[in-house]
Design goal:
Elements lengths: L6 E6 L1 H6 E11 L3 H8 L3 E2 L4 E5 L2 E5 L2 E2 L16 E4 L2 H13 L3 E10 L2 E11 L2 H27 L1
Antiparallel strand pairs: 1-8, 2-7, 2-9, 3-6, 4-5, 5-7, 8-9
Length: 157
């Protein structure tokens, strides 16, 4: 029997798209324990307030909350611990250089499964000003109104 390929979106950081201008997307593996991956598959996690930093040539994901696995007993670890990201050296160097330049931060945008392994999509982010956020809200409202009008007009034809 062939092994089932698990692929699918587990978490999405929609707030990051609203708060930041995103660029330079990368996909990285996450180093997790056995109980953390079980909680992640149950979608008992959150990306709110999490960010990526580089220390000693390694990338880490900070403030990602993964709830303790209920059946995990003594094997559960701290739910807010920093988790190592699996990236190539050149990707880490490029990321560190961008973060040192200033004005940029690195945020996770998605967590998904790829062939049974947990992966995270990270992006370089530059903060939006208040007027940029208002523009985003305005565009979203206009699109919503056009969609509603289009569906209502289509119903009568």
């Amino acid at each position: 029997m062939a092994k089932k390929k698990e692929t699918g979106l587990l978490l999405e950081n929609r707030r990051a798209r609203f708060e930041y201008f995103l660029s330079d997307f990368l996909t990285a593996g996450i180093v997790l324990t056995g109980t953390e991956i079980k909680s992640l598959r149950r979608r008992d996690a959150s990306l709110t307030g999490s960010y990526v930093y580089v220390k000693d040539g390694e990338a880490f994901l900070a403030n990602m909350h993964i709830a303790p696995y209920k059946e995990g007993n003594i094997f559960n670890v701290d739910h807010l611990r920093d988790r190592k990201l699996l990236l190539q050296k050149r990707e880490i160097r490029k990321l560190a250089k961008s973060l040192e330049e200033g004005g940029y931060t690195c945020v996770p945008t998605k967590v998904f499964l790829s062939h049974g392994f947990a992966k995270v999509e990270i992006a370089l982010a530059k903060g939006k000003k208040a007027y940029d956020k208002r523009d985003t809200i305005k565009k979203r409202d206009i699109e919503r109104e056009n969609e509603r009008a289009g569906h209502k007009a289509g119903d009568y034809e």
